[in-house]
Specification:
Layout: H1 6-73
Length: 74
Amino acid sequence: MGIPSGMELMVIALVILLLFGGKKIPELAKGLGGGIKNFKKALKEDDEVETKKETIEAKEENKAEIKSEESQKA
């Protein structure tokens, strides 16, 4: 299966137009765009949370190393 040709795309567009009607298609496109926007936003927030988590873990590891060095000196 490859990319649909021009005639196949026209048939697909016609079927969509028949199923949803001319008034519903812009609403569907708007909803799809909003969904994609929310998905990208969630991915970005997840990445930020993961970065903060890694930073906190690194700080905790540094504190543990410092404590172990201090206990070895004493």
